[in-house]
Amino acid sequence: MKVLITGAHGKVGRAATQAMKEAGHDVVTTDLTRPGFERKPEGTLKYTMADLTDAGQAYAVVRDVDAVVHVAAIPEPTGNPPHVVFQTNLMATFNVLEAAIRFGVKRFVNISSETVPGFFFPERDFLPDYAPVDENHPIHPQDPYALSKHFGEQLMDAAIARSDIQCISIRPSWVQFEGNYEQNLGPQVRDASVLSPNLWSYIDVYDLADAIVLATESELPGHEVFYIASPDNVGGHDFAEILTKYYGDTIELRSLDRTDASGITSAKAQRMLGWTPKRSWRDYLDSDGRALRK
């Protein structure tokens, strides 16, 4: 397929672009990075700079593709004014999806967020009702980022109601790559009392990229939502033990498929997409949370 990847120069976009190319697809990319004007190396992918909050620019990059992977977004709510986060994320998603519908694009992969239920950047304390968290968890977003991602998923629902497009929304857990494992996850590996709102869950960016390729190639009808998280928790702790130790009975503990289970389950993605995660924090960090290699 000819696949457009938006936000292609970000952490997730770069990995998704490489994985899609290795899967044999014709990849075109877009982002806000200004292109250079030197001679391009052989095999360079087609790149177009575009501000997707502008409908005209969104239409220009979506034309003549078979599938869209929409990664572009402000990735969290704390570094920009709330209205900028919400408007940027929601209007970019609307414009790209609207263009895809008008041009007859058949597959749309929307990169949503683990924050959609509301337990990452809330203005009032909020914890999951149960763990491991799955796609059926109630939705109570508070912050502008989670709200924009929640409404983005609703845009997918509206799209399939009025067109023949197939949509998949992926909710990645906290995304890690070889350059940030030690900084982000090292403290939790050493000490489980270093809490995170996603209950010690994470995802390797290259496992996430594999899931994106599978979602793009999937022929699932309608709109499906999938969490993508590593099956193990940060530090490999006994999940039932640490959940009870640090949260008491505030969070209901549901059945686990392994002792060191993640706080978010990706069982649905493994079942319906055939996704098999291959990487773990153990590939990057030792038992003290220190990097094994640069």
From TrEMBL:
Pfam families: Epimerase (PF01370). Keywords: NAD, Oxidoreductase. Residues 3-218 form the NAD-dependent epimerase/dehydratase domain. Belongs to the NAD(P)-dependent epimerase/dehydratase family. This is NAD(P)-dependent oxidoreductase.
